[in-house]
Amino acid sequence: MNNVRVKIIRLWKQYSTASGETIEMVFVDSRDDKIHGTVKKDEVGQFVHVLQQGQTKVLINVIVISRFRLNLTDY
């Protein structure tokens, strides 16, 4: 079982015609790694009232999908 303790540092609702309404989040874990998470449209109603920006949560049975995007722009 994969459990991860995270803090929600950014949370917003998003709508697209392809995937409907979703909840998008950016988490930070104990190693200061940033993680993007999504609540899919079928589960938005279940989670919309229990997720708030700034909260710390323990995610249970996490499914990790690795996708990396490189940003080669100098800042």
UniProtKB/TrEMBL annotation:
SUPFAM superfamilies linked to this entry: Nucleic acid-binding proteins
Superkingdom of origin organism: Eukaryota
Residue span, Replication protein A 70 kDa DNA-binding subunit B/D first OB fold domain: 4-66
Record field: transmembrane: none
Protein name, as recorded: Replication protein A 70 kDa DNA-binding subunit B/D first OB fold domain-containing protein
Source species: Brassica carinata (Ethiopian mustard)
